[in-house]
């Protein structure tokens, strides 16, 4: 996985905990001056305390494009959960863009952003 990677350390068992961890990671990504944050699951470690949920911080759309391709449906080890724009408020982004939504937005060009 490209970019600065972080594995969250608290349990990811409830929506409230997932939301809190996402918000904490979002703030860290902003502090790192990254442009995007990916939330993904390590499928090889589903019983981990954190549910296998990890975050990666990326600096460019090209980095996100590469990561979305890497985390595609044919990846047996990791699954993309959401793409977040760290320059927009987290509250406006819900669960983030899916990989397909990201790729479609990229195909449509700057007017779709």
Précis, in short:
Helix content is 33%, strand content 22%.
Proportion of helical residues: 25-40%
- What's the arrangement of strands in the largest beta sheet? 1-3-2-4
Structural class from helices and strands?
alpha+beta
Written as H for each helix and E for each strand, in order along the chain, the element string is: EHEEHEH
| Main pleated-sheet profile | 4 strands, antiparallel
How much of the sequence lies in strands comes to: 15-25%
What is the distance, rounded to the nearest whole angstrom, between the alpha carbons of the first and last residues?
24 Å
Shape: globular
Q: Which regions have little confidence, pLDDT < 50, spanning 5+ residues?
A: none
Question: Taking all residues together, what is the mean pLDDT?
Answer: 86
Radius of gyration: 13 Å
Count of discrete alpha- or pi-helical segments spanning 4 or more residues = 3
Please outline the helices and strands.
Elements: E1 4-7, H1 15-31, E2 36-42, E3 53-58, H2 61-70, E4 78-85, H3 99-108
Descriptive account of the structure:
The protein is of the alpha+beta class and 113 residues long. 33% of the residues lie in helices and 22% in strands. The protein is built from 3 helices and 4 strands; from the N terminus they run βαββαβα. The chain has helices spanning 15-31, 61-70, 99-108, and strands at 4-7, 36-42, 53-58, 78-85. A 4-stranded antiparallel beta sheet has the order 1-3-2-4. The longest helix is centred in the first third of the chain and has 17 residues, at 15-31. The chain starts with a strand and ends in a 5-residue tail after the last helix.
């Amino acid at each position: 996985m490209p970019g600065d990677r972080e594995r969250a350390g608290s349990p990811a068992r409830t929506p409230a905990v997932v939301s809190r961890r996402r918000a904490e990671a979002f703030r860290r990504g902003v502090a790192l001056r990254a442009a995007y944050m990916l939330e993904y699951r390590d499928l090889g470690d589903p019983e981990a305390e954190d549910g296998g949920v990890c975050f990666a911080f990326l600096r460019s759309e090209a980095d996100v494009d590469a990561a979305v391709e890497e985390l595609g449906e044919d990846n047996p080890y990791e699954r993309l959960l959401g793409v977040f724009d760290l320059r927009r408020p987290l509250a406006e982004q819900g669960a983030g863009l899916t990989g397909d939504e990201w790729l479609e937005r990229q195909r449509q060009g700057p007017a779709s952003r």
